[in-house]
Design goal:
By secondary structure, the chain is α+β, with helices and mostly antiparallel strands. Helices cover 24% and strands 29% of the residues. It has four helices and 13 strands. It has a six-stranded antiparallel beta sheet, with helices on one face. It has a three-stranded antiparallel beta sheet with strand order 9-11-12. It has a two-stranded parallel ribbon with strand order 1-6. Strand 4 and strand 5 form a beta hairpin. The longest helix is centred in the middle third of the chain and has 20 residues, at 137-156.
Length: 251
């Protein structure tokens, strides 16, 4: 499917009116485009003149054949519910002791012009894993190990992540080749106990997803599906290419 979405131009200002206060976000550039959202680097200046950088994410799903401007987006009730549920989940997991330092903090969720929907989260320090070069396997495995511990904490809380990939792992250098890992993008997460429910939308990046997830075989999707993605990332590091999803058409 071609991506015909037209993103927000750099320099655009979007104002959130909440509790009688107006906060204006200035858009800088695009960070990434997912199936349901586009994320931007953005910032706002508070009443004391202090600048706050963060990530502004708009509900702007794929699916239109003709180009769709950011200010002409129309979404279904189901899409909006998923967007709001993901925001609530991000806020919830960010309050747990095991994941508070590894989860980007959601600051606000708001509508603009009554039909456009946004989230603003604090900016994660560091660089996404897909933009970091590791000279040794040991260094790369140390990052994957940290990410696996975070995902285990999500599992303990009853959630599957489902869309594990390098661009969703942020790494902050602590010197001597060591990194602290944080997670970004919670739109794909679903309750583990509800994975077999057809009402739960399965979202993933096929090149890093387990076969059962690509095929939509819900009875086989579980904790192991998340860990399969770590294997795909390790494969990509070792062989210089993503494994792809050749198994998607097999039975």
């Amino acid at each position: 499917m071609n991506d015909n979405r037209l993103p927000i131009p750099a320099g655009t200002e979007i104002t959130d009116y909440h509790a009688g206060k107006a906060v204006t976000f200035s858009v800088a550039d695009v960070i990434g485009c997912g199936g349901s959202c586009i994320a931007y680097n953005a910032f706002y200046t508070d009443a004391y003149g202090i600048r706050h950088d963060g990530v502004l994410k708009q509900l702007h799903p794929l699916g239109t054949e003709s180009p769709c401007r950011w200010d002409e987006v129309q979404v279904s009730e189901e899409m909006l519910k998923r967007f709001l549920d993901a925001a609530a989940l991000q806020k919830n997991v960010g309050q747990h002791a095991e994941t508070v330092n590894a989860t980007s903090m959601l600051r606000t969720v708001f509508s603009y012009r009554d039909s456009l929907y946004f989230q603003f989260s604090e900016k994660l320090s560091g660089t996404s894993l897909d933009h970091i070069h590791f000279d040794t396997l040991h260094g790369f495995l140390s990052v994957l190990s940290q990410a696996a511990e975070i995902v285990c904490a999500y599992h303990t809380q009853g959630w599957l992540y489902l869309d594990l990939k390098p661009s969703n792992l942020f790494c902050r250098s602590e010197g001597n080749g060591k990194y602290a890992v944080s997670m970004f993008d919670f739109d794909s997460m679903i309750p583990l106990e509800q994975v077999t429910d057809p009402a739960q939308v399965l979202s993933c990046s096929k090149e890093y997803a387990a076969p059962e997830l690509v095929r939509g075989n819900r009875s086989q999707i579980g904790i192991s599906s998340d860990f399969f993605s770590f294997g795909c990332m390790l494969f990509a590091w070792g062989f210089g290419r993503r494994p792809g999803c050749r198994w998607a058409g097999r039975r």
